[in-house]
Amino acid sequence: MATHVETPTTRSSLWSRRPQFLTSSLLIYAALVFWAFVSLFPIYWTITTSFKTAVNVTQGHLIPFVDFTPDWKGWRSLGLSPDTIFAQSTVRDEFIRRFLNSIVASSGASFLAVLIGSLAAYGLSRFSYKFLWMKNKDISFFFLSQLILPPVVLAMPFLVLYKHVMLLDTLVGLILVYTLMVLPIVIWIMRDQFDTIPVELEQAALVDGCSIWGAFLRIVLPIALPGMVAAFILSVILCWNEYFFAALLTSSNAKTLPVMVASQTGSQGINWWSMAAIATAAIMPLVLVGIFLERYIVKGLTEGAVK
Amino acid sequence: MLHTIPQSLGPVERMIVPPGSARRGKLLLVAATVLLFGVLLAQITDVAGVTSFGFVSWRPLLSGYIIWAGALCAAQVMIRGEAGQRAAFVLPAVLFTVAMVVFPTVFGLYIAFTDWNLSAVAGRRFNGLDNLRTLFADRYFWNALLNMVYYVLSVLVQYAIAFGLALLLNAEIKARKFFRVAFLLPLMLSPVAVSWMIGKSLMEYRFGPAATLARHLGWDNPAFFSTPWLARSSIIAMDAWVSIPFMMILLLAGLQALPSEIKEAAKVDGASGWQSFKEITFPLMLPVSITVIILRVIFQLKLADIVINVTAGGPGGATDTVSSFIFREYRDRSNVGYGTMLAEFYLVIIIIFVALILKGASRWMQRDN
C-alpha cells in the first residue's frame, strides 16, 4: 500500500501533521475513484453507445447531450424504442423469449438448488451420518468436490444423454444442469448458516413433541431465511450468466440470453448501436440486482469462505 | 461436533417404529426397485430388438429413477423411523448429484474411447487408445494447457489488486457504500456481455476508447489481440476485471473480521502503515487469502466464455484455454469422442493439481500454526 507518506521531520509539527494526513487520504480517494472509473466505465460506455449513431461511434463521442445527441437507433433495432414499442417486432419477440427463458432457467435452478441444498446442509450441520465408509466430512467433501468439475467434462455426456431422454433444448434440462452447477455453493453457504443457529432452539421443540422435520420447518427455516435468500440470489446470478452449457445444450427453443448475445455480437458487421442495446438489456437486470441487493450478494459470498 | 443433535434426545416412543410401517416401507422399496429394473430391462431389450414396446426415448427410465428415488426416501422414514427422517435430509441432494454427475462421467469415459464424429456417417466406433495417442501428439492441446498455467498464475496478480482494493474499502472513507457497489458491479455481468463490452468495443482497433487512449499515450498501433502475449494479457485483463470483485469482497470480509485491538496496539507501538500491514494484517489474513486464492484457481481452471467470444483461441491458439479448445472441438468439428477424451484427461490433471494445492495449503497452515 502506497498510502503511507514519510513525515518530514524538519518542519514544524503543525505542518508535518496536516500534509501527511491530507496526502494519504488524497491518495486513498484517488485510488478509489480510479478503480470506480475502471469498474464503471465499460458499463457507462455500453449504455451510452446504445444511444449513438455511426458518426458518434467513429468520432469517439463519450458524453450524451454534450458530445452527441442521443438517438433511439439501437433500441429501435431491438423494437424497444418509444416509437416501436407498440409495433410488431420479431426481434423484440425473440429477445423477450430469450429473456423469459433466462429468468425461468435461473430462478428454477436456484429454487431447486436452495431447496435440496438447504435440506442437505441442515442434515450435515445437525446430524452425524455414516454411510459405508463415508461420514459427515466425506459427504460434505463429496458435494464440495463438484465445484472442481469443469463444465467440459459433463457437456458431451449430457448432450448425448439428454438426446436420449428428450431433454435437449428444453428448459427442464437446463434447470437440472444449472442446479447441479450451483448446488455445491448453496450447500456451502447454507451449512454455515445453520451452524450459526443455536441447536437449543430445536432441542426445545423436540422436547415439546415436534418431529425432526417439524422442528426444522417451524423453528429453523424462518431463522435461516436471510441466508437462503442470499444463496438464492447468488445462484440466480451464476445461472443467469452461464454460457457454456446453454450454448451446447440448447438450439432454438430454450436458448437463453447469453447465447443470443453471443450470436448477435459474434457477427462481424459492426452494428454497434444494436449490439450495445442488446448488451445493455442483458446486463441491466443484474446491474440493478447488484445495486439494490448488494447486501445479500456480499452475505452469500462471504458466508462459509471467511470464518 | 458441538452442533449435532444427540441420537437419544427425543422421547423413547418416537424411536420405536410400528412393525406394520416397516413392512410397508420394505414392500414399497422392493416394488420401486423392481419397477426400475423392469423398465431398464424392457428398454434394453427394446433397443436390442428382442421386444417391441415401441419406446421413443429413454425417458421412461428417467421417470423410473425419479420414482425409485422418491420411494427410497419414503421407505427410509417408514423402515428406520427417526434415523430415516434424518437420512431424508441429505438423500435428495445425494441422489440428484449421483444421477447428474457419476452417471455422465462414467458414460463420458466410454465416449472417450470411441471414434465418434457427429458429422460423419459412420457413427460411434470403439477405437481403444487411439484418442489418447492423438491427444499426446496434439500440439494445440498442450499449448492450451500451457496457457492455463499463465491464466492460473494471473490469479496471484488479481489477488494483489483485490487485496489493495479491500484495504482501501476498509480504510476510513466516505461514501463507502457507493464504492463497494461500484467495485462489485463487474462481478454481476455475464462474461459474454463483457466480451462484447470490453473485448469487442472498448478495445476495438479503430474506434474503441481504450485504443484511442493508447494512441494518445503514444502507442501507434494499439491492436490488443495481434501478438500472442498482447492477446493473452488482454484476456487476462478482462478476466481480472470480472473476477477481482469476488476476491475483494471475501478479503474485505476477512479484514472486517480482524480484531481491531491488534491494529490499535500496533499503532500505539509506533508501527508505520506498511509495517503494521506486513507484520500484522497480512499474516492474520493468510487463512482467508489461501481460501480465496484456491477458490479462484478452481474457477479459473474453467475459464472459457471470454476466450470463446472474444478471440476464439486466436491468434494461433495463444489465448486458448483447455475449455475453449474442447468447446470448439465439439461445436465446430463435432468431434465428440476425441473432445471427451480431452475433457476427461483434463479432469484427471485438475483433480491431481487441486489435490496437491489443498494438501500443500493444509500442510503449510499446520506448519505455520
UniProtKB/TrEMBL annotation, chain A:
It is found in: Cell membrane. It comes from the Bacteria. GO terms for cellular component: plasma membrane. The keyword Cell cycle does not apply. Keywords: Cell membrane, Membrane, Transmembrane, Transmembrane helix, Transport. CDD domains: TM_PBP2. It is a multi-pass membrane protein. Residues 99-293 form the ABC transmembrane type-1 domain. It holds the Pfam family BPD_transp_1. Its main location: membrane. GO terms for biological process: transmembrane transport. The chain crosses the membrane at residues 26-47, 99-121, 141-162, 171-191, 270-293. Belongs to the binding-protein-dependent transport system permease family. PANTHER family: INNER MEMBRANE ABC TRANSPORTER PERMEASE PROTEIN YCJP (PTHR32243:SF18), MALTOSE TRANSPORT SYSTEM PERMEASE-RELATED (PTHR32243). This is Carbohydrate ABC transporter permease.
From TrEMBL, chain B:
GO terms for biological process: transmembrane transport. The chain crosses the membrane at residues 58-77, 89-113, 148-169, 181-199, 240-259, 280-299, 336-358. Coiled coil: none annotated. The keyword Transmembrane helix applies. Keywords: Cell membrane, Membrane, Transmembrane, Transmembrane helix, Transport. It is found in: Cell membrane. Residues 144-359 form the ABC transmembrane type-1 domain. Belongs to the binding-protein-dependent transport system permease family. This is Sugar ABC transporter permease. The lineage of its organism: Bacteria, Pseudomonadati, Pseudomonadota, Alphaproteobacteria, Hyphomicrobiales.
